[in-house]
Write a structure and sequence with these properties.
Helix content: 40-55%
Number of domains: 4
Structural class: alpha+beta
Number of strands: 18
Distance between the termini: 58 Å
Strand content: 15-25%
Oligomer: single chain
CATH topology of the largest domain: Serine Threonine Protein Phosphatase 5, Tetratricopeptide repeat
Number of helices: 19
CATH superfamily of the largest domain: DhaL domain
CATH class of the largest domain: Mainly Alpha
Length: 543
């Protein structure tokens, strides 16, 4: 149990945080909302942290104050984009507190996290919730509440990480543009990775990864879940970043504040941070020349980067349109294994839904919009979802939507397998209807109350086997009921039995059932798949 962190450990934690960010930077990049060059959050945060690491490695002692100063200055000098600058300010606030100690405990760290939040919020002209700032704040508040009773750092960081994960999941509810894009906040996810990386160092786990080179080609922020035509307009088209160095002797901190206020009149996403040694500027504006001219009044400008976000967005939209497919597929299901199966048979998008969690028509429409295809086939896979799927048609413009009336998972898989990219959408729809008619399906689940149904007297908790119409078997043993159900569904025309076992069925039980059925039906192939679905112990199909 470690109660205090000294300079050497803090340095290891920052290095580990940088590695964790770099390891996951591409995943973080894909979470960006706008497909513009300013949008590579994971890469920007990673390069910012790598700059801090370079300063750490140049330190000549293990003194905490020296390391804290190195991290603060290194992160600021290397800060890239909004996310990188805010990251640098989080560390600036944190390091401003811990540098006054030889080592620090959970109470001091909680104080440092609080200051990190204050500095980060003050760095942004108009702070928004649902961003990295929210994650920083919620972690800080939680740290304040537990630091008096949690003394060991391992437990403290576990608590921090859990709170950060909760905050990241909350971001779409706080920032509508995230919910519309179907993502969580990328900057908040990056900060979560920083906390995770620090924890790895604390418990002695190494993170192996090759760090990103600044010249490396960045990942394309275009992604399948972005509705790039409907996220709003870009009001200010030029992402402008630079440093002000060698500030004039007459320049004051008040001048820096006035510069920030001026930029707010000609643009947005304004960040002006630093001191009389150097200043970091980031602004989205339609007049980058005016931004540079105003900065020259304070000192020299250096490391200028201006990117045309409007043109990049136009090019990405053209690419999106060029890649538009004639046909795509959407499936509604629950269970990681079932989801993976649909993806394996080339379904473009899967949304969660099933017996006890029916998605709304709007949920389905939102998913349809994010499939880059002219015609979209929807597989409801549940009779209670078919109507909502039909209603979703009225909520989507510019696409032809065909709801294939699949009432269960096996029918949905059969419909997806029937898809042929070489025939028309109308012909595919007919083929899919034929395919689902040839599927015999059943489910093994449990009774939720006492009842008399279909000639069976059921007690709450009984295992029951049913097809899409009625109960066909009941008992206390899952495998025995499954065997009985299959016996009632099977006929000599069937050449394949598929078993999709659910979250509550051990794999070994599924294997035993497979072997028993294979022995009972030697002329029929019996296959098992991990569906991972809730509620249903088994989903069964016979073809």
């Amino acid at each position: 149990m470690q109660r205090n962190i000294n300079g050497a450990m803090f340095a290891k934690m920052v290095i580990s945080a940088s590695k964790m960010l770099d390891l996951n930077r591409e995943q973080i990049d894909t979470l960006n909302v706008f497909p513009v060059p300013d949008g590579d959050t994971g890469t920007n945060m990673s390069l910012t942290m790598q700059s801090a690491v370079r300063e750490i490695k140049a330190c000549k002692s293990n003194n905490l104050a020296e390391f804290a100063d190195a991290v603060s200055k290194g992160a600021l000098r290397g800060a890239r984009g909004n996310s990188g600058v805010i990251t640098s300010q989080i560390f600036r606030g944190l390091c401003a507190v811990i540098k006054d100690y030889n080592d620090f405990d959970t109470k001091i760290l909680a104080k440092a996290l609080k200051n990190a939040t204050t500095v980060a919020y003050s760095a942004v002209s108009i702070p928004k919730e649902g961003t990295i700032l929210t994650v920083c704040r919620m972690v800080s508040e939680h740290a304040q509440s537990i630091c008096g009773k949690v003394k060991d750092m391992e437990t403290f960081f576990q608590e921090i990480i859990a709170k950060a994960e909760e905050a990241v999941k909350l971001t779409p509810d706080l920032l509508p543009v995230l919910k519309k894009a179907g993502v969580v906040d990328s900057g908040g996810t990056g900060l979560l990775n920083i906390y995770k990386g620090m924890y790895k160092a604390l418990i002695g786990e190494e993170i192996e990864c090759a760090e990103t080179d600044e010249t490396e080609v960045k990942t394309d922020p275009t992604r399948e879940h972005a509705d790039i035509f409907n996220l709003g307009t870009i009001e200010f088209g030029y992402c402008t970043e630079f440093f002000i160095i060698n500030l004039k002797k007459r320049t004051t901190l008040a001048d820096i504040d006035r510069l920030r206020e001026y930029y707010m009149t000609i643009g947005d996403s304004v960040l002006v941070i630093g001191d009389l040694e150097f200043v970091k500027v980031h602004v989205h504006t339609n007049n980058p020349g005016r931004a540079l001219s105003e900065a020259l009044k304070l000192g020299e400008i250096d490391r200028i980067k201006i990117e045309n976000m409007l043109e990049e967005n136009r090019q990405l939209k053209k690419k999106y349109e060029a890649e538009r497919k004639p046909m795509g597929m959407l499936s509604i299901c629950s269970g990681k294994g079932i989801e993976d199966i649909f993806k394996d048979v080339n379904v473009d998008r899967v949304i969660e839904g099933g017996q006890t969690m029916n998605p709304s028509a709007q949920d389905i429409a939102d998913a349809i919009v994010k499939i880059n295809a002219e015609n979209v086939f929807v597989f409801p896979n549940n009779k209670n979802i078919i109507l909502a799927a039909e209603q979703s048609k009225s909520l989507v413009e510019g696409k032809k939507i065909s709801v294939v009336p699949t009432k269960n998972i096996p029918q949905g898989i059969a419909a997806a397998l029937a898809f042929n990219p070489d025939i028309s959408a109308d012909e595919n729809f007919i083929e899919m209807l034929h395919a689902i008619d040839n599927v015999t399906a059943g489910q093994i689940t449990y009774a939720v109350r006492n009842a008399k149904v279909d000639g069976f007297t059921l007690t709450k908790g009984d295992v029951i086997g049913l097809d899409n119409k009625k109960i066909l078997a009941k008992g206390k043993d899952i495998s025995a009921v499954a065997e009985t159900l299959i016996g009632k569904l099977y006929d000599q025309s069937h050449s394949l039995i598929n078993l999709y076992y659910g979250a509550d069925v051990p794999e070994e039980d599924a294997v035993k059932l497979q072997e028993k059925l294979q022995e009972k039906y030697p002329e029929t192939d019996v296959e098992i798949f991990c569906g991972g679905q809730p509620i249903y112990y088994y989903i069964v199909s016979l073809e």
